[in-house]
Design goal:
Blueprint: E1 2-4, E2 8-12, H1 18-32, H2 43-46, H3 48-51, E3 58-64, E4 67-78, E5 81-89, H4 100-114, E6 119-124, H5 129-137, E7 141-143, E8 160-165
Parallel strand pairs: 5-6
Antiparallel strand pairs: 1-2, 2-3, 3-4, 4-5, 6-8, 7-8
């Protein structure tokens, strides 16, 4: 477990957190990104353990005083490759003061290395400029859609793609 200070902790997802995780993700997708999306449109959120927590994959949450304030998932897509999915951080927990996104990403990358993942891919939209800067600052390089592995699950909103090659 990775933690920051006495309150914020990064822990593996457990089912009792499912309602809070879905609420956090939907509030950001709908409220900030104005996506017309529901929980039903995201079957992965209906069964996080069987969708993400298998093979070399996992799903983590950032918890502060019992409340879910961030999420990140690693989807094992085979061949030593994985997809970074569901990275969401409550607005009040973004930035360097809490370091929530950094802690979530560090936890994911450490796990990936320990589970022999060589490459982590992600897709995002062209409008998420702060996310682009964050990923680039943390070792992700922009790639074309054609450079994605065939098994990468491209989402309909994805228009920009990144790869992080993990060292030993």
């Amino acid at each position: 477990m990775t933690s920051q200070g006495p309150a914020l902790a990064i822990v593996p997802f457990t089912p009792e957190y499912a309602p809070e995780v879905i609420d956090l993700i939907l509030s950001i997708q709908r409220g900030e990104f104005e996506l017309a999306i529901t929980a039903e449109d995201q079957p992965d959120l209906q069964d996080i353990p069987n969708f993400y927590q298998r093979g070399a994959g996992s799903f983590w949450i950032a918890v502060d005083r019992g409340a879910v304030v961030g999420t990140i998932a690693l989807l094992d897509i085979g061949n030593g490759q994985a997809a970074l999915r569901k990275m969401f951080v409550r607005p009040a927990y973004r930035g360097p003061v809490h370091g929530t996104a950094r802690l979530l990403l560090e936890t994911l990358l450490e796990w990936a290395r320990m589970h022999q993942i060589r490459e982590v891919y992600l897709g995002t939209t062209a409008s998420f400029l702060a996310a682009h800067r964050f990923y680039e600052k943390n070792g992700f390089e922009e790639i074309s859609r054609a450079e994605l592995p065939a098994q990468f699950p491209v989402m309909s909103v994805d228009s920009k793609f990144y790869r992080h090659v993990l060292g030993g």
